[in-house]
Amino acid sequence: MVTTHNLGFPRIGAKRELKFALENYWKGDVTLDQLAETGAQLRQRHWQNQSALDLVPVGDFSFYDQVLDMSFLLGNIPDRVRHLDGNTLDNYFRVARGRSAQDSSCSCVHAGEMTKWFDTNYHYIVPELSAETEFSLDASRLLAQLAQARQLKVSAKPVIIGPLTYLWLGKTRDASDKLALLPRLLPAYITLLNQLAEQGCEWVQIDEPILVTELDASWQQAFIAAYDALQAGSAKLLLATYFGQLKDNLPLLCKLPVQGIHIDAINGQDEIGQLIQQLPADTVLSLGVINGRNIWKTDLHATLEWLEPVHRLLQTRLWIAPSCSLLHVPVDLSSEQKLDSRIQYWLAFALQKLDELQILAKALNNGRVSVQEELIANHVAIERRRTSSLVHNPAVKAAIAKIDATLGKRNSAYEQRAIKQSALLKLPDYPTTTIGSFPQTTEIRQARNQFRLGNLDEVAYKALMQNEIARCVREQEALGLDVFVHGEAERNDMVEYFGEQLEGYAFSQFGWVQSYGSRCVKPPILFGDISRPKAMTVEWIKYAQSLTDKPMKGMLTGPVTILNWSFVRDDQPRSVSCYQLALAIREEVLDLEQAGVRVIQIDEAALREGLPLRRSQWSEYLQWAVESFRITANGVQDETQIHTHMCYSEFNDIIASIANMDADVITIETSRSAMELLDAFDDFNYPNQIGPGVYDIHSPNIPNQEHIVQLMRKAAERIPAQRLWVNPDCGLKTRAWEEVIPALKNMVAAARVLRAAA
Ligand SMILES: CN1c2c(nc(N)[nH]c2=O)NC[C@@H]1CNc1ccc(C(=O)N[C@@H](CCC(=O)N[C@@H](CCC(=O)N[C@@H](CCC(=O)O)C(=O)O)C(=O)O)C(=O)O)cc1
Ligand SMILES: N[C@@H](CCS)C(=O)O
Ligand SMILES: [Zn+2]
């Protein structure tokens, strides 16, 4: 018999119950007990949803982030919150977001750094480490969840992050060696494993996704030492890897003294033969056979073709599961009422993926005939998608075939363009701007909701959004900014908004996926060849420009970011989808230029984030990603100034590619590193203009003028002042107007001080 299990379930809830409970708790509208009750109900529901599985994950639920949970479980709590008032959860929220429910009127501590989880759009709170870090186990929250699971008779398999991945995800502030902490960390893990075993858990899933990255010898050796030590714990370990292939780490994994391993068989199907040869004869092999990163139905026939022989060989040693936690997909496709039924038929969200797993298990255990109807229905769906005229557009394919090097090349080099742009825009030194979005207020979201529900007609909705844009322009006039934005009020999200307007995309009503904490995104579904039926942003930008004499930035999301934050096709290379997006957004750029827009920003927030997990694959990715950006941006006249924006700026390794994008201006995040991240630009002699973010928009703290001046002076030590812009780190959509206005006032005042001193 094959064993079925799951690595993790989306915790936000099919109706985003957790999001609303959290935000209400932070506002003080619900009590801690009520929040805890919502958590308990969600866990119960999710375990029921998974009750057909042989083993159900416990510990995958989190009130904010599973990595932060691990930090609290290991007692690795930053000193700055340790002795503050309130309960553990309040301190937990202080690390997560800089404040607890109690501190809503002040911002007591700075939040932990947040960064993306491997190559996903999920963001975790970075463990803070130093040579002094001590660990002291407090498993009470995990044990309480286990107790709840036991009461509900759930066949529980606790899920924890492994010690090596935990250290790898962390950052040391004192440049000390993270691996030196391992001997201090392991005793906490051994005690934890014993406690879990004492609670009756036969298996513990220990996640070590870093095994799909390139590990140097010291990390490889640390794996051996760590898992030798963990043998002392009394639970059986299922060591889980996901998000890619094992490659050089395969022999290492097979040597580790664990009772089972899980691999991502979607990416690593080719490695199964080698694994079977090298694994000890009694080790369980769990295969992630359902894609946990995408929303397409699995081709069950094709899967069974290769899985049946593996089952015959391994018998009860074979387990099957989704490739990774289902955190990265929406909960339930059956809630969708507005998707084109033909497309809906091709899709599977978390619940449907678990159904697919059951069908596979039945087929393996009792023969395909036992699930004949299900297999036929699956085959029909797969074939309909493969041959659908909705997917294929010959005109788009022809346009892609015609792409050549001229499309991505501007008429003149940056130096000549800069002279023409400067003559036209007449900007002061240290020009000030913002990144695009202004606060997405409850009123804006409610208006859009009413529009969607049909309670507000298009004319009224448009008028309301125009009012917001007008307010945004007025505020920027009053602040004295130099280059304006329209504020993105009309956009639900910087990716979904474009997905909704492009042919080849479908979008869901309830397909929410957690991005960080209570924040969610609804990735649009890229199912077919992409084209742009009509202009998407021009009317809004023209309207905004009509309200001011200051230059108004056209605001677009770039092809690489749209691709990386969508659910993408699995029937063609990502590069092809990206080129299709590039051609579509290029048309929008040219339309904006035609409409008289002189500054166009093309956000590529996910270009760096989308780097493959293995460095050996970077150059291939960067080649098509940068070329896609160039195709999008570079069809304009010299006088049109192209901006791009990236939220993170650790560019040391890819600075040549960033320069090769040839944007006239790039705005980036640098304030948290006190401009040190600009060193990469300095060392490379980056030739174009840079707006190093002068304050962290993720924090409610108001940056002070003097601090901004100091930061810009540091920037000017690295980049010539004539090429510097002054702007925040990222968009302001998650902030309130009361925070934005004083922050920008100080930013503009700082720019004036800098100009006066120049
Ligand atoms: C820059 N970031 C982004 C990433 N990925 C994206 N796809 N988009 C991004 O901007 N990745 C990296 C970062 C992650 N950062 C964020 C920041 C903020 C959010 C966020 O605020 N998400 C919102 C949802 C946004 C949205 O789609 N809004 C819709 C629907 C709003 C809604 O919930 N409506 C309610 C009713 C409204 C009411 O009555 O009040 C409903 O439908 O029930 C819209 O504006 O129309 C969030 O709330 O989580 C995400 C990632
Ligand atoms: N223009 C977008 C970029 C976010 S990365 C915004 O300002 O929200
Ligand atoms: Zn950003």
From TrEMBL:
Chain residues that bind 5-methyltetrahydropteroyltri-L-glutamate: R16, E17, L18, K19, K116, N121, R519, C520, W565, E609
Active site: H698 (proton donor)
Top EC class for this record: transferase
GO biological process: L-methionine biosynthetic process; methylation
Domain Cobalamin-independent methionine synthase MetE C-terminal/archaeal: 431-752
Binding site residues for L-homocysteine: I435, G436, S437, E488, D603
Annotated cofactor note: Binds 1 zinc ion per subunit. Binds 2 Zn(2+) ions per subunit.
Residues that hold Zn(2+) 1 according to the record: H645, C647, E669, C730
Record's keyword annotation contains Lyase: no
Chain residues that bind L-methionine: I435, G436, S437, E488, D603
Alphabetized Pfam families for the sequence: Meth_synt_1, Meth_synt_2
Metabolic or biological pathway, per its Swiss-Prot or TrEMBL entry: Amino-acid biosynthesis; L-methionine biosynthesis via de novo pathway; L-methionine from L-homocysteine (MetE route): step 1/1
Reaction(s) this enzyme catalyzes, per UniProt: 5-methyltetrahydropteroyltri-L-glutamate + L-homocysteine = tetrahydropteroyltri-L-glutamate + L-methionine
Cofactor: Zn(2+)
Enzyme Commission identifier(s): 2.1.1.14
GO molecular function: 5-methyltetrahydropteroyltriglutamate-homocysteine S-methyltransferase activity; zinc ion binding
Residue ranges annotated for the Cobalamin-independent methionine synthase MetE N-terminal domain, each copy included: 4-312
Residues involved in Zn(2+) binding: H645, C647, E669, C730
Keyword line: Amino-acid biosynthesis, Metal-binding, Methionine biosynthesis, Methyltransferase, Repeat, Transferase, Zinc
Keyword Nucleotide-binding: no
InterPro entries, per the entry: Cbl-indep_Met_Synth_N, Cobalamin-indep_Met_synthase, Met_Synth_C/arc, UROD/MetE-like_sf
Family: Belongs to the vitamin-B12 independent methionine synthase family.
Purpose of the protein: Catalyzes the transfer of a methyl group from 5-methyltetrahydrofolate to homocysteine resulting in methionine formation.
Protein name as catalogued: 5-methyltetrahydropteroyltriglutamate--homocysteine methyltransferase
Species annotation: Solimicrobium silvestre
Gene designation per UniProt: metE
